[in-house]
Amino acid sequence: MLSLVGVKCKCSRKGPKIRFSNVRKLEIKPRYPFCVEEMIIVTLWTRVRGEQQHCLNPKRQNTVRLLKWYRVWKEKGR
Fold first, then answer.
1. What's the CA gap between 19 and 7, in Å, rounded?
2. How far apart are CA 28 and CA 40, in angstroms?
3. Which Gene3D superfamilies does the entry link to (predicted)?
């Protein structure tokens, strides 16, 4: 039997708008039984704050554009 005690969705809050140039890493996690939607986790780097992780709403147009841009960027080998 699967126990879900102490487990919660990592993306309970969605992050702010982001600049594509600050993206260091992008992770797409599948939808878990305890989450409503898939998790898109972005690691950003800024000079002032350093590295930060944010969750993005997969339904927002900005997130869809980011995913498309990131796939093209990765295919070019950067």
1. 31
2. 5
3. 2.40.50.40
CATH numeric code, 20-76: 2.40.50.40
What's the rounded Cα separation, in Å, for the pair 67 and 6?
Answer: 30
Tell me: the pLDDT tens digits for 7-45? 566 676 666 677 778 888 888 888 777 777 888 888 888
* Residue 55 CB partners (closer than 8 Å, separation 6+): 10, 11, 13, 14, 15, 39, 40, 41, 42
What SS3 class is residue 48?
coil
CA atoms within a 13 Å half-sphere pointing along the CA-CB vector of 19: 4
**Rounded distance between C-alpha atoms, residue 68 and residue 4, angstroms:** 33
